[in-house]
Specification:
By secondary structure, the protein is α+β, with helices and mostly antiparallel strands. Helices cover 36% and strands 25% of the residues. Strands 1, 2, 3, 4, 5, 6, 7, 8, 9 and 10 form a ten-stranded mixed beta sheet that branches.
Length: 337
């Protein structure tokens, strides 16, 4: 049955779930003045391919067939639940960079009421075409940069790389995993950039200093760029967006750990069936994320580990009696339009 389902129809169920949560006012922006969505790609290997949904790849054993089902996940990071609000299958003929514009179209067409103002992506989708696609939709982008993009990366370093630590615009220090982590944020206006990048307005540099319990210190620097003017957000809000943009990575991590997506794709011989299961997992993630972070009233319960949350659901599923289910209100699926 799963192999016969249309992935687009299953995705429509995810969209209905998100719209219903929005109507309940469960998706308000908590720490930012507008809605921000972070996008990122995810790939799961299976033992089949169709050159449509699953891209043919060569594994370690050249005699074994390996296919990669790739998707672009959209996570609403401006909401404390950080739900997955959309999933876009990456066609086998292209990659994340090539599929970005179509994924953005699907996202914005689906959720005009969310008032999304800014979208974020890591360096894997950074190109002039993709940046222009964001601006043409009257949105702003926040893209990461890496050294493999020398023109933009070198320009960012020349604008911000010489500032001393004492001149940072925002400083954040916290304990993470037994280490003391200090992040210094430097904000600057983009000067004359490469041709075509006239919409680039803000350059950001994040210097992370990690001090471990044994006294060992490591330093890392990352650059980001945005079409949003630097004065539209306070330094603290810029730091918040940079920190929250990792919410899409957290979504992928939970899909792989709590929901065992990579270890148990369940359907490995049929790419469309595997994609349907992946979308169903994202519906489950979104429902549980909203329940965990929004529906529950206790701050302690909102910090519940995902493993414990799933254990509680398992307990309910195996112990609920017919009597316990009597009188539950029927909840029909909301229309997809």
């Amino acid at each position: 049955m799963l192999c016969q389902l249309d992935p687009q129809q299953v995705t429509a169920a995810l969209h209905s779930t998100v719209r219903a949560a929005h109507r309940r006012k469960s998706l308000r922006s908590d720490a930012l003045p507008f809605a921000v969505v972070s996008l990122d790609g995810k790939s799961t290997a299976i033992s089949s391919c169709d050159d449509g949904i699953a891209q043919r790849q060569t594994g370690e054993d050249p005699s074994a067939l390996v296919g990669a089902v790739r998707t672009i996940t959209s996570t609403l990071i401006s909401n404390s639940a950080k739900p997955c609000i959309d999933v876009f299958p990456v066609p086998a003929r292209t990659n994340e960079m090539g599929a970005f514009s179509a994924a953005l179209d699907q996202l914005m067409t689906t959720y005009p009421a969310l008032d999304i103002r800014l979208v974020s992506y890591d360096a894997g989708a950074v190109s002039l075409a993709n940046a222009s696609a964001v601006v043409e939709r009257h949105l702003h982008y926040l893209f990461c940069l890496r050294a493999t993009q020398p023109t933009l990366h070198d320009a960012a370093r020349s604008w911000l790389g010489t500032r001393a630590d004492t001149s940072c615009d925002f400083r954040d220090e916290r304990r993470e995993g037994g280490c003391t982590v200090t992040r210094l944020l430097f904000i600057g206006r983009a000067q004359e950039g490469p041709e075509g990048w006239e919409h680039l307005r803000t350059i950001l540099r994040v210097k992370t200093i990690t001090v471990r319990s044994n006294g060992c210190t490591t330093t890392d620097e990352r650059y980001l760029m945005s079409s949003l003017a630097s004065d539209r957000l306070s330094p603290r809000q810029w730091q918040t967006i940079i920190r929250l943009r990792w919410g899409v990575e957290t979504c992928h991590q939970i899909l792989d750990t709590a929901l065992s997506e990579d270890d148990h794709p369940w359907i490995t011989g049929h790419p469309r069936g595997m994609l349907v299961v992946a979308i169903l997992r994202r519906i489950v993630f979104t429902l549980l994320a909203i329940y965990r972070a929004i529906t529950q009233r206790s701050d302690e319960r909102r910090q519940m580990p995902w493993k414990l949350l799933l254990e509680e659901i398992w307990t309910v599923l195996i112990t609920a009696s017919p009597e316990a289910l009597l009188g539950l209100r029927h909840r029909p699926l909301a229309p997809s339009g």
